[in-house]
Amino acid sequence: MAKKFPKIEDYSLTSQITRSSRSVSANIREGYAKRSYENVFHRHLVDAMGSSEETRTWLEYAHECKYIDNKEFDTMDKKYDKLTAMLFNLAKNWQTYNTIKEDESDYET
Question: What digits encode the pLDDT tens for the residues 43-78?
Fold first, then answer.
């Protein structure tokens, strides 16, 4: 979507949307890798929520600048709103989401 923005936005709005949206999944994955440290995992989930909300802010700017239309904005805004809510619930209840059973033999050498 951001690739359609004017060239003048390459190093500002386009870059910000790209960075903040990528930061969401990167924080989730990094936090999950550190899940045995509850505070660290929680911090990464909070950072992911922050990046999700930051992305919504940049989408609002793009909408106000008329780089994206109402339909595209509404669709993306609703998706990020839902994502933030999911992250909030995960941060609040992350212990109950741990359904992956790790086989300790995977780590033996």
Answer: 999 999 999 999 999 999 999 999 999 999 999 999
Q: In this structure, is residue 14 part of a structural domain?
A: no
Q: Hunting for tokens 């940049």 — which residue is that?
A: 58
Q: Which residues of 22-53 are buried (b: 16+ CB within 10 A; e: fewer)?
A: ebbeebbeebeeebeeeeebbebbebbbbbbb
Q: Is 24 domain-assigned?
A: yes
The count of domains in the chain is: 1
Bigger pLDDT: 109 or 7? 7
Count other C-beta atoms under 10 Å from residue 68's C-beta. 22
Q: Count of H helices and E strands in the chain?
A: 3, 0
Task: Check if the beta carbon of residue 83 is closer than 8 Å to that of residue 24.
Answer: yes
103 domain residue, yes or no: no
The secondary structure of residue 3, as a DSSP letter, is G
How sure is the predictor about 7, in pLDDT bands with cuts at 50, 70 and 90? confident
Range of the domain at 65: 19-91
